[in-house]
Design brief:
Blueprint lengths: L7 E4 L13 H14 L3 E4 L11 H15 L4 E5 L5 H13 L4 E4 L9 H13 L5 E6 L1 H4 L5 H7 L5 E6 L4 H11 L4 E4 L5 H6 L4 E4 L6 H12 L3 H18 L6 H11 L18 H17 L1
Parallel strand pairs: 1-8, 2-3, 3-4, 4-5, 5-6, 6-7, 7-8
Helix pairs in contact: 1-2, 2-3, 3-4, 4-6, 9-10, 10-12, 11-12
The structure holds 2-(acetylamino)-2-deoxy-D-mannose (MN9) and pyruvic acid (PYR).
The site of 2-(acetylamino)-2-deoxy-D-mannose (MN9) has 13 residues, from loops.
Length: about 300
């Protein structure tokens, strides 16, 4: 298996809208190009940060098509395809496979807390619709409402396409457990950006993060320092990252609205967020300016 392509810094891709709030193919391509230029390993398209739960199946296809047209073959592309109902998720899985993405990923079904066998069937049904594509389990219990367990993972490991877990639960111990259970070739991606260094220390093979795309330089720096054995220096950069995230989260508008305003200041305009996510209000502009300056200062260090 070619697992190397998953090792590294993989930003969660943001939804790119035009000024009327429709999906913008041009801006989607511009963001993909922008991140390619930053030297990241791959992109995680259509996840939480991609606002997937507020988009139609057709819109999600258009986004992935444009990302693949721009960076397919150049970056590792993981397409999140879960839609909360099996049929639509399978349609997106088939579509993603037809575009030759590297992997598909899926959260568990949300709202109804299904039993583990129900979750396994949902994931396996999705995976069966993309029979030649790697499958990554997305564990994010604080938002999904249900958690991956060792028993559920063991059930999923019977599916040879299951190559890893993207772990967004808060205990870094979970990363250790999935990695230990999965073995040396198993991919375990750190979710919480605030714990990237700790996740790597616990055995994560890389990270997929919602704030990577607004400051890829800093996460790449952490990655480089950590693997050069300079853990204290990596932790210092992590500290800067955490303070920046807390600042971005202090706005009235949603985190992704802040992130997009900062990206615009950095030359990449991808519009704002879609309702019901709160957009920025006037007083948030100070938060945007301050967080943006903090990012620039941390990169310049
Ligand atoms: C709960 C959640 O959305 N987690 C994301 C994925 O793991 C993270 O990447 C966060 O966006 C990030 O850590 C900022 O809090
Ligand atoms: C942050 C992340 O992993 C997501 O957008 O799903």
């Amino acid at each position: 298996m070619e697992l190397k392509k998953y090792l590294g810094v993989i930003p969660a891709f943001y939804a790119c809208y035009d000024d009327a709030g429709n999906i913008s193919p041009e801006r989607t391509r511009a963001l993909a190009r922008y991140l390619l230029g930053k030297g990241v390993k791959g992109l995680y398209v259509g996840g939480s940060s991609g606002e997937c739960i507020y988009q139609s199946v057709q819109e999600r296809k258009v986004i992935l098509e444009n990302v693949m047209a721009e960076v397919g073959g150049k970056l590792t592309v993981i397409a999140h395809v879960a839609c909360n109902n099996t049929l639509d998720s399978q349609e997106l899985a088939r579509h993603a496979e037809s575009l030759k993405v590297d992997a598909i990923a899926a959260i568990p079904p949300i709202y109804f807390h299904l039993p583990p066998y129900g979750i396994a069937e949902y994931w396996n049904d999705i995976s069966a619709a993309a029979p030649n594509t790697d499958f990554i389990i997305y564990n994010i219990p604080q938002l999904a409402g249900v958690a991956l367990t060792p028993a559920l993972l063991a059930e999923m490991q019977k599916n040879p396409r299951v190559i890893g877990v993207k772990n967004s639960s808060m205990p870094t111990q979970d990363i250790q457990m999935w990695k230990d259970q999965g073995g040396p070739d198993f991919v375990v991606m750190n979710g919480p950006d605030e714990q990237f260094v700790s996740g790597l220390a616990m055995g994560a093979t890389g990270g997929i993060g919602g704030t990577f795309a607004v400051m890829p330089e800093l996460f790449l720096k952490v990655w480089g320092l950590f693997y050069a054995g300079k853990v204290a220096e990596a932790a210092a950069v992590q500290n800067d990252i955490c303070r920046i995230i807390y600042k971005m989260c202090s706005a009235h508008g949603n985190l992704y609205a802040v992130v997009k305003a900062i990206l615009k200041k950095h030359g990449c305009d991808i519009g704002s967020v879609r309702k019901p996510l709160p957009a920025l209000i006037d007083s948030d502009l100070t938060v945007v300016d301050e967080a943006s300056a903090m990012i620039d200062a941390a990169i310049a260090k």
